[in-house]
Each structure stands twice: as structure tokens, then as C-alpha cells.
Write a structure and sequence with these properties.
The complex is a heterodimer of chains A (264) and B (546). By secondary structure, chain A is mostly helical. Chain A folds into two domains: 11-129 and 229-255, no CATH class; 142-215, no CATH class. Chain A has helices at residues 19-35, 39-52, 60-84, 102-127, 131-140, 146-174, 184-215, 233-256, and strands at residues 91-95, 98-101. Chain A has a two-stranded antiparallel ribbon with strand order 1-2. Chain A is flat. Chain A starts with 18 loop residues before the first helix and ends in an 8-residue tail after the last helix. Chain B is of the alpha/beta class and 546 residues long. In chain B, 30% of the residues lie in helices and 20% in strands. Chain B is built from 18 helices and 20 strands. Chain B has a six-stranded mixed sheet with strand order 5-6-7-3-8-9, with helices on both faces. Chain B is globular and about 70 Å long. The chains are: A mainly alpha (264), B alpha/beta (546). At the A-B interface, helix 5, helix 6 and helix 7 of A face strand 5, helix 2, helix 3, helix 5 and helix 13 of B.
Chain lengths: 264, 546
């Protein structure tokens, strides 16, 4: 559970790229796709992203496992758009107040593909970026304050611990007679009590961790970095790839005549 | 720069001197430490003893320079100096290890965690990695296991890693280490700062016996090598006695501050070579609950053998803390941490569960206690115990459970549900609608009467332990399950607990305990269930020495 965010032992090529380069690419693709609602640009982007899966050590199965909430949200978004959007063209399905026409279906599919095309890069980024490397890059390259970055990184370790602690506290409280049975009100009270117990433990742990860090000289002063966050030629390729994907999506949509700016 | 001069190890042992030093925490009326006069020579190794509340941790925190963030309300008197300078300005001059292994690890990769302190001291990069390798070698963390394949994104690591990088890779996840390994890792992180003063605050209280020795030996090796000064707080004297060359006994700041007590002005009660102090103050230390070597506290012995009625049985049980996962339409059961466990719990009989770390002892106990669902096999309650509540304890309602099986968790705070000691004890009986009259007796029996209005979270370790046992017993369960009840307890609490449980056993309660403590299980008698290392059956119940 603690290592849920990245794949342990992932050795794919993109894990070696600088997190900031990857971030820039995700930002670029998201920005371009947000400009237009059409199915062509989104499809091109999705195809390119799927082709990148092996480079990030990702498979379809893994993508579903870690990204299913995003994927389902994209599908639902498309579906509801198809239903509520103003009808145009032939009506395909009509159930009372809900109807799906050719026009609204196209719009719905466009929405769904766009959601996917924006969700996939995020999943890719998560899979091939280690939080420690990200922190290094943010503190050394993006020049964010190291006190803040490293404090967050250390705190993230405790989040996994808290998940285990939640389960233990739940059992410990059942052993005291606080059940998860009964009326909704009783359950709510039990959950609130358990949350309070967890909060107490979280604060205790956090203050002990703070003492540990302070005793190891962590503070406001200058510090050196054991690992240098560097840019390599790989990062140039990553950036070039990102620009290429974004450009291909725009050009394809323009060529097919489907590109339409969202504000039009 | 600190610690840049001196010998081959680069460590300059520190001097400590305290003159009339005292500290009162913000919001407290009595000082934690009062009038401390103490001189520690470079390279000296000091074991700090004293009853709880004697300010031992406060002193260590002050020496580590982490005391004083409490604002103006906290109060310092006298002086406390390292090498003639206040500790707060000297980052890295001392290194502190605390009790809870989970909070001694800062980062998620082995090498990074060791480097953390050195980075904060602005040590140059090449020098950091040299120190990381050396420190990991010194604490013995480079020789266990091998996983070269894991060494994936170790950028920069290879700058120095070289061909000799065998053992644990530098990017080994710190979450995968045992408690003892985590403490040794913390020691490595401290060593990489090259401190002249090493401060250990009950470094082994949360560890099993193997982990205790692991950490103690690593500390010994590092001190021999670096010659650093050591101050260790620990109430298990026998563990540290041969490693230290001086024992200092402190008394509570409140006692030292009040006039008329024996040594009215000084916080130091006794000071000298270990054998001398232990001989001179044996009775006093025993009275204060210190684990003096060669002394086992007197306990009540069992008077009856118990009726031996079967109350609860586990048959071919497989256990895990994980829940089954659902993927599509299939349900995937978790991988059990232990399987093939068969055991019986009988009225008036004790059952002790033993085995190495990770053998699933606690998980089994929680499953037996109806708090976890079995992965395979089953736990069944005899009619005698279930009394109409059904055969499977996991399916009982919370109220049905507490009056039948009571479970005392390792961490007492996990079980506190109210903000007052008395409410805490009344909680079970009130929910059950009976048994409130028992509370008075429990309060008295476990010496909690003077604390009825206190907040449970503010009690001392021993008091919390006694309270957690009392609260569970207030519901009058016939089976009592305890997870490491004697971990980190002083000798007095230990003796009280063992005697009390032996009394309960004689009265017909059944006591199941997960413990590494052989003296404790000897007092309770009964059978031993030894769980083998990691999975694959190996569970055997033996009719132990009763």
C-alpha cells in the first residue's frame, strides 16, 4: 500500500528522464487538447500515448488498475454529454427527455476521448516518476524551497503508515465495543471517533519525525544534495516527443477539418 | 565546519557539561529537570537511569539541540554545554535516536536516508557517498540479502558505487526493513554526520529480543571505531551494562526542586561505574522499576490448574491482515502470513504464542479474537463461550464480542475511546448495561484510583498499559487476548501485570498472549504455540512448562 504511487523496480527508459521535462510535456499536451473539442486530435494523442506505454513500463492492465477512476470519469463525461448536448442531425436514441443524436453523439465521443487523452499522460507520469526524484528536481531545478519539498516528501512516507494504523485502530476499537453496526448515526459517530484516534497518532508520529529531522540538521540553512538532479539528452528527446505529439494532434485535426476552438 | 579535524574516523568526541541546568516545559508547573550538575568527558559512555518523569528524554533532546521551540513559556535555568557551546547552535555535533523505529526513517530509499543528515550539514557530494557506504558497513546493513537487480534509478549513486556495491542496494525501500534494521539505519544516518556525541533515547524499547541485540552490537562497534561520547537512556540495564563505563541515576525535577527531600538540590542521585552503582543502589533502582541485571521481580504464582473447559478453537487456520480483493467478478484471497494453525483455548489455561518477527503471531491472535476474518480454516467458539451468539467470533456484534473475548492491543492509545480514565473504564459496562460495580475494584487493583479524572492520553507508559488492561476487563470477558503486553514496561508494571493475570487465570479466565518474554510466560504457565518462520505451517502447540 505504501508504494502504490510508483511501480517498484520499474526500469523503463522514461524513469531516467528528469521529472521536470516529463511535467512540461504533460502540461503541453494537456494545454493543446484543452483548446479544441474534436475526436481527431484526441485520437491522435491517445494513439501516441498508447505507443509510449512500454517506454514508461506501463501496460493496459496496470493503466486500468491505477487510473480507473480517471478513465471511468472520462467515459461518464462523454456519455452525459451525448445525452444532454443539444441535438443535431438524425436522432439515434430517444428515451423521454433524454435523446442521443448524431451531433450530440459526436460531441460526447469527442469529450470522452479528450478526457482519456488528458488522463493518460498523468498516469504515464505517475508510473515512471519516483517521488524522491520529483522532489530532487523541484528543489534543485525548479528552485522550490527545500524545507517545503523535503518536508512533504517525508510526510508522504507517513501516509502509508496511517493507512495501516487506520485498520489497527478500527480493530482496537471494535475490541472496546465500538461497532461499525447500527444506525447510520452510530456508524458516523464510530467513524468520527476512529478518525480522532488516527489524528492523535498522526500528530504524535509527525512531531517525532520532525524531531528526527531537526536532530539531523534539517533546517533553513544551506544544504548540499547527494543526488544531483540533471538534464540529459534523453530530456531533449522527451520534450521533442511531447511537441511532436501536440503538433501531430493539431495538424491532423486541422487537416480533417474537425478542429474547433472551445470558445467558438 | 564541525568534526573536520581529529583522527582517522573524522570524529572529535564531545564534552558535556551541565551547571545547575534545569528545564520546565511550556504549560507545566513543575520543571522536568532541576539543578543538574554533570560532566561527561570525551569518549565516555553513560547510561542514564531514573524513574519515569526524571527528565531523561528532556535532557537528551536538549543535548540534541531540538528543545526550545515551545516559545517564551518554557523556562531554562543554568547552563548546558557541548564543548563549551550551547547545543542549539551546533547542528550535527550530536545525533539523536528515538524509540519509535517508524519515525527514525526520513526518506524512502536506504542510501538517501543515510545521506540526509550529511546533506543538511552541507557536506560535499563525493564525501557524502563515501560516508554513506562507510556508515552502512559499520551498522552491518550492507551484508544482508542481495538485490542488485533493484538498482534501477540510482542516479549519482554510481558515481561512487563501484564494483564493491554488494548487499542491500542503496535504493532499497526503507519501508521493507524490520524494526531492528530501521534503528540501525537511523544509526548509520547519525554516523554519516560524524557527531562527537551519540544520544540514544530508549532505542530498543520497541524491538524484539533479536532486534535489541542487533542494535546494541551495532552501537558498540561504531563507538569502538569512532570513539564518540555516548549517552543512552534505557531501563533494561543488562542490555547496556557491559557497553557503558558509567551509570548516572536522575531523580524527577519536582523531587529535586522541593526542599527537604534526600538530595534536595541535585538532579543526579547517583553517579559511578556500572557495577558500583548497581551494587549501591540496587534496592532503590528495583523500587523505581528499573530492570536490574539478575533480578526477576517477585510475582504471584498460580494456585489452581484451571478447569480446562474448551472455550475457543482454531482449526487449520490461515491468517492475514489484508482483505480479499475483488477483481471483476473474481474474489482473490490475500496471501496468508501463516497457515495450518491449530490451537485450543481453555478456561483457566494460558496460551503463549511465540515465534520470530513476521511469523504472523499478532495476526493470528487478532483472528482468534474475532477481529480479523480467517483466510482459510476456522475459529469456533464453544457453546460455553458463545452463549447463544453463534459459533464464529468474527460475526459477533461488538457488544457480544467484548463480554466474551477481550483484546488488549500493543499500543494502549489505539484503544482509548473517551477523554477521561473513569469514562474509559465505564465505557464497556455502560454499553453492556451491567458490570459497573466491577470498575471500582479494577481501579483499585490496577492502582488507577488517583487518576480517575485524568485524560488517558496524558498518562505514563505503565499507567496506559494498566488502564488498557482494566478497560478490556471491565466488560468481564472469559477469554483475554494480549499482544506483547510487557513490551517496554518497567519492572514494577511487569510484576503487577503478571501477578494480576495469574489471578485471573486462577479465577477461570483464559489468557492468550503474544510475547517474546519468557519470564512472563513462565509466570502464566500453560501451553506454548510456536509459529514457524514465514508461512508454511510450522505451527505447533506444545504443553509447555506449567
Amino acid at each position: 500500500m505504501r508504494d502504490a504511487l510508483t511501480l517498484r523496480g520499474n526500469q523503463a527508459l522514461l524513469t531516467r528522464a528528469n521529472p521536470l521535462a516529463k511535467f512540461a510535456v504533460v502540461f503541453l499536451i494537456t494545454l493543446v487538447l484543452a483548446l479544441s473539442i474534436d475526436w481527431v486530435s484526441a485520437s491522435v494523442a491517445i494513439a501516441a500515448e498508447l505507443a509510449l506505454f512500454p517506454l514508461a513500463g506501463l501496460t493496459l492492465r496496470l493503466a486500468w488498475q491505477r487510473g480507473w477512476p480517471l478513465i471511468i470519469a472520462a467515459a461518464l463525461g462523454g456519455w452525459s454529454t451525448a445525452i444532454v448536448a443539444a441535438d443535431s442531425g438524425a436522432v439515434l436514441l430517444d428515451v423521454g427527455i433524454w435523446s442521443i443524436s448524431e451531433g450530440s453523439l459526436q460531441l460526447g465521443i469527442g469529450f470522452m476521448l479528450r478526457g482519456l487523452a488528458i488522463a493518460l499522460p498523468a498516469i504515464l507520469l505517475m508510473t515512471c516518476t519516483d517521488p524522491t526524484d520529483l522532489a530532487d528536481a523541484l528543489a534543485q531545478r525548479a528552485r522550490l524551497p527545500h524545507r517545503f519539498v523535503l518536508g512533504t516528501l517525508a510526510a508522504m512516507r507517513l501516509v502509508g503508515l496511517m493507512a495501516e494504523e487506520w485498520q489497527t485502530i478500527g480493530m482496537a476499537r471494535r475490541a472496546r465495543g465500538v461497532g461499525s453496526q447500527g444506525t447510520p448515526l452510530k456508524r458516523l459517530r464510530a467513524t468520527l471517533g476512529q478518525s480522532f484516534g488516527l489524528l492523535v497518532q498522526a500528530i504524535r508520529r509527525a512531531s517525532r519525525l520532525a524531531i528526527t529531522m531537526e536532530a539531523r540538521g534539517f533546517g533553513t540553512g544551506q544544504r548540499t544534495w547527494a543526488r544531483e538532479s540533471t538534464y540529459s539528452t534523453l530530456d531533449a528527446w522527451v520534450l521533442a516527443g511531447g511537441v511532436l505529439i501536440a503538433a501531430a494532434a493539431v495538424v491532423a485535426a486541422a487537416a480533417m477539418g474537425t478542429w474547433n476552438f472551445v470558445w467558438r | 565546519m564541525t568534526a573536520s579535524d581529529a583522527g582517522t574516523s573524522g570524529v572529535r568526541p564531545a564534552t558535556v557539561s551541565a551547571r545547575g541546568w534545569g528545564w520546565r516545559h511550556a504549560g507545566r508547573s513543575a520543571p522536568a529537570v532541576h539543578g543538574l550538575d554533570l560532566d561527561i568527558a570525551p569518549g565516555e559512555r553513560v547510561l542514564l537511569l531514573g524513574p519515569s518523569g526524571a527528565g531523561k528524554s528532556t535532557l537528551l533532546h536538549a543535548l540534541a539541540g531540538v528543545l526550545g521551540d515551545e516559545g517564551d513559556d518554557a523556562d531554562e535555568t543554568g547552563s548546558l554545554l557541548i564543548d563549551g557551546v550551547v547545543p542549539r547552535g551546533q547542528r550535527g555535533r550530536s545525533g539523536l535516536m528515538q524509540q519509535d523505529p517508524e519515525t527514525q526513517v526520513v526518506l524512502s530509499r536506504l542510501g538517501d536516508d543515510v545521506a540526509f543528515g550529511a546533506e543538511n550539514l552541507s557536506v560535499p557530494r563525493d564525501e557524502i557517498w563515501r560516508r554513506v557506504h562507510e556508515a552502512l558497513d559499520d551498522v552491518g546493513l550492507r551484508s544482508i540479502g542481495a538485490g542488485a537487480g533493484l538498482n534501477a534509478n540510482g542516479t549519482g549513486v554510481d558515481a561512487d558505487g563501484g564494483p564493491g556495491a554488494a548487499g542491500l542496494p542503496l535504493d532499497h525501500p526503507t519501508s521493507a526493513l524490520s524494526g531492528g534494521q530501521k534503528q540501525r539505519l537511523a544509526l548509520a544516518g547519525i554516523l554519516a554526520m560524524r557527531p562527537g556525541l551519540i544520544l540514544l533515547d530508549e532505542p530498543t524499547a520497541n524491538l524484539d529480543p533479536a532486534g535489541v541485540l542487533e542494535v546494541r552490537d551495532a552501537v558498540g562497534r561504531c563507538l569502538d571505531k569512532t570513539g564518540a561520547t555516548l549517552v543512552v537512556v534505557e531501563h533494561r540495564v543488562s542490555v547496556w551494562k557491559d557497553l557503558v563505563d558509567r551509570i548516572v541515576v536522575l531523580q524527577p525535577g519536582s523531587a529535586a526542586g522541593s526542599a527537604g527531600s534526600l538530595a534536595a538540590t541535585s538532579a543526579v542521585l547517583l553517579d559511578g561505574p556500572p557495577d558500583q552503582v548497581l551494587a549501591d543502589a540496587r534496592d532503590m533502582l528495583i523500587g523505581a522499576g528499573v530492570w536490574v541485571p539478575g533480578y526477576v521481580p517477585a510475582t504471584r504464582s498460580r494456585a489452581s490448574a484451571g478447569s480446562g473447559e474448551l472455550l475457543l478453537a482454531a482449526a487449520d487456520l490461515a491468517v492475514s491482515r489484508e482483505r480479499p480483493r475483488r477483481r471483476g467478478f473474481r474474489t482473490i484471497p490475500p496471501v496468508p502470513v501463516q497457515q495450518g494453525i491449530t490451537a485450543q483455548v481453555r478456561s483457566g489455561h494460558a496460551l503463549t504464542i511465540t515465534g520470530p518477527n513476521g511469523a504472523g503471531k499478532s495476526t493470528f491472535a487478532l483472528t482468534l479474537a474475532g477481529l480479523l476474518a480467517p483466510v482459510a480454516g476456522k475459529v469456533s467458539a464453544a457453546v460455553e463461550l458463545s452463549a447463544g451468539a453463534g459459533i464464529d467470533p468474527f460475526k459477533w456484534k461488538a457488544n457480544q464480542l467484548i463480554s466474551r473475548i477481550g483484546t488488549v492491543f500493543q499500543e494502549p492509545e489505539h484503544q482509548f475511546v473517551t477523554g477521561r480514565v473513569l469514562d474509559e473504564l465505564m465505557f464497556g459496562p455502560r454499553h453492556l448495561g451491567h458490570g459497573e460495580e466491577r470498575v471500582e475494584e479494577l481501579l483499585e487493583r490496577l492502582r488507577l484510583t488517583h487518576l480517575v479524572d485524568a485524560n488517558p492520553y496524558t498518562l505514563s507508559g505503565g499507567e496506559k498499559r494498566r488502564l488498557s488492561v482494566a478497560t478490556v476487563l471491565a466488560a468481564h470477558p472469559r477469554v483475554l487476548v494480549l499482544d506483547e503486553p510487557t513490551f517496554g514496561q518497567d519492572a514494577n508494571t511487569w510484576a503487577e501485570l503478571a501477578s494480576f493475570l495469574s489471578e485471573l487465570l486462577d479465577a477461570g479466565t483464559s489468557v492468550v498472549s503474544v510475547t517474546h518474554d519468557q519470564e512472563f510466560s513462565a509466570v502464566l504457565g500453560g501451553a506454548e504455540l510456536r509459529l514457524g518462520p514465514v508461512s508454511r505451517g510450522g505451527a505447533r502447540q506444545e504443553a509447555g512448562a506449567a
